[in-house]
Amino acid sequence: MTVTGGVLQAVPALPTAADTAVRLLARGDDEPPVTLPRDPAREAARRELSKQMYHENDPSWLQRALETFWDWVDDLLGAASTATPGGALGLVVIVVAVLAVAAALWWRLGTPRRRPVTVPALFDDRPRSAAEHRAAAEAHAAQGHWNQAVQERMRAVVRALEERALLDPRPGRTADEAAAEAGRALPAHTDRLRTAARDFDDVTYGGRTASEGTYRRLAALDGDLERAKPALAGTHPDARQGATG
């Protein structure tokens, strides 16, 4: 305060630091007091969002893969239904028909299995007589084990031909080889011998299941071969049939 002509006058006080800060904040400028460049701000946001607390409820990689797969299947079926006559109903009919054909082939042909490049021998290491093989075949047949019955009966057929000297005993012979060699000695039964060898291979190496009819057909061949007489060398099959007719 100053005295002028006996009158007291007030002198404005100097602005304090607090007043200066208030005036700066109340200035109303659009620009914030502190700014960051764009790239560092984006990197800071990325680091923040990469924290585990923000991803606790995210789906696993397996769930994401399954969702992607089913989306692909849905798109594929949708495209197929638009291209198929009858739309979605026509597509369902085609799928059912394909499944029915596949089931019929599986039932008829059995489970596909890779056939070995080299076919194993017909007999195992322990030699047995034709009578022993027949007895084993009948024992399997009595229990309904048709695969084993067919195998043993085919071995009985070949062993019987060896015992009659119509086939040379030879280790490692396959069923196909035995049928081909026996067909030259008994040409009237060539086709049945080949069928028997094919049945043996199917159940032994091809994964097929034999039936009772397969076994009975092979047993009948075994009996007919026991009564069959070998062909003479150089005799034509038609001449033999005329001689026996």
Query: What would you call the shape?
Result: elongated
Strand order of the largest sheet: 1-2
What is the gyration radius calculated from CA atoms? 47 Å
Largest sheet: 2 strands, antiparallel
Strand content: under 5%
The average pLDDT score comes to: 74
> End-to-end distance, in Å?
160 Å
- Weakly predicted, low-confidence segments: 1-18, 235-245
Class inferred from helices and paired strands: mainly alpha
Q: Helix content range of the residues, please? A: 55-70%
Total count of helical runs of at least 4 residues: 10
What sequence of helices (H) and strands (E) makes up the elements?
EEHHHHHHHHHH
DSSP strand count: 2
Write structural notes for this entry.
- Residues 1-18 and 235-245 have low confidence and may be disordered.
- β1 and β2 form a beta hairpin.
- The protein has ten helices and two strands, in the order ββαααααααααα.
- α6 crosses α7 and α6 runs parallel beside α9 (212-227).
- It has helices spanning 17-25, 38-49, 61-83, 87-109, 130-142, 146-163, 175-185, 190-204, 212-227, 237-244, and strands at residues 2-4, 7-9.
- It starts with a strand and ends with a helix.
- The chain has a two-stranded antiparallel sheet.
- By secondary structure, it is mostly helical.
- The chain crosses the membrane at residues 86-107.
- It comes from Streptomyces werraensis.
